[in-house]
Amino acid sequence: MKVKLLIILIVLAGILENDLIAQDKAPAKNNDDDEVIKVDTELVDVPIVVMDKAGKPILNLKPANFTVFEDGKRQEVADFAATNAPFEVAILLDTSGSTRSDLQLIRRSAENFINSLRPGDRVSIIAYKTETKDNRAVATSEVLSSLTENRADLRSALQRVGTSNGTPYYDGLLKVVEDIFRSDPKDEFRGRRALVALTDGVDSTSASDFEEAKELIEKAGIGCYFIQVNTRDFFEENLLGDCESAIRFSAAQIRRYYRRFYPNSSIEKASNFCQLGDFERLAISKKLYELADSEMKLLSKTSGGKVFPVADLSEARNAFKSVADEIGMKYSLGYYSTNEKRDGQYRKIRVELKGLPAGVQVRAREGYTAPDN
């Protein structure tokens, strides 16, 4: 009897020891039973605009109305925001060249745009200025206001918008990504960040280039809207004649022209504006404006945004209103890609609609570059 009792006690001790070891190895339970544990992967944000065949926005859609594909493979929608969700908007104001004489008009147009946004929308303002470096005047980009809902602070920032002697456009795009949107968005702003740029898009002084800015903007998933001001006629009217009194290309623009359009040419390449004849000045101007146009169209198309061309700044106010209307009707969805490779490759996104009449139009982010190791 004593032997049997001893055996039973030994078995019970072993069971208890195993149970304690198992408890030691088990993960600690979070005190908050409702906390969501997130998978260590990146959510791909896709801003979307949906319009009927007449071009009017279609509102009140649900996640079930959308199907998203990446490189042809269907993805599961993990996050969705309706059109009434708030936005974060970075406004980039180009006050160089022909726009310098219309500074008050630019300020008023931007203020009307800010006033037309909804409560909860957050806005930042970036503009150009001229500062002295190494005893010479240099055009730079400046953040006049970080993201805020405070309309009084934004109006005050607009009054500090000045003019510049050059166009650091690409540097301004980088500043939007690296300064304004450097932190990950809060949940309510996921897929709901936008750049609104009033510019002709012709860079003259940036240290960076378009490809660098494009890569970072695409990675950040920022929707790009451009109010494209036509300054070409003004520029070319003042481009010809005596090189000392004419509006001139910067050395950066001349280098960009030859590098982009004649990369392998053996022709002698002028490095100084005064070495250029009138015919070559016009040829360079034509190509630089075409390049700016194609870059704006590319950024807006791939990000799900849009270009709003204006003949002059008197039309900017209406263009800003169109941008505000568009932002106010945007949906956004997010998904975790089934392709877990970190290969740095570009992946195409396609959004299809379900349960809607024929002729409905959809405009969405067209792709992104996967992270790499």
Describe this structure in words.
By secondary structure, the protein is α/β, with parallel strands linked by helices. It folds into two domains: 80 residues, Sandwich (Immunoglobulin-like), CATH 2.60.40; 239 residues, von Willebrand factor, type A domain (Rossmann fold, 3-Layer(aba) Sandwich), CATH 3.40.50.410. The chain is 34% helix and 25% strand. It contains nine helices and 14 strands. A six-stranded mixed β-sheet has the order 7-6-5-8-9-10, sandwiched between helices. It has a four-stranded antiparallel β-sheet with strand order 4-11-1-13. Strand 8, helix 5 and strand 9 form a beta-alpha-beta unit. Helix 2 runs antiparallel to helix 3, helix 2 packs parallel to helix 9 and helix 5 runs parallel beside helix 8. The chain is globular. The N terminus is likely disordered.
Please write out the topology.
Elements lengths: L1 H24 L17 E9 L14 E5 L2 E3 L1 E5 L6 E6 L9 H14 L5 E12 L2 E13 L2 H9 L9 H12 L12 E7 L10 H11 L2 E7 L2 H6 L13 H11 L16 H26 L2 E5 L5 H12 L2 E7 L9 E8 L7 E4 L2 E3 L4
Parallel strand pairs: 5-6, 5-8, 8-9, 9-10
Antiparallel strand pairs: 1-11, 1-13, 2-3, 2-12, 4-11, 6-7, 12-14
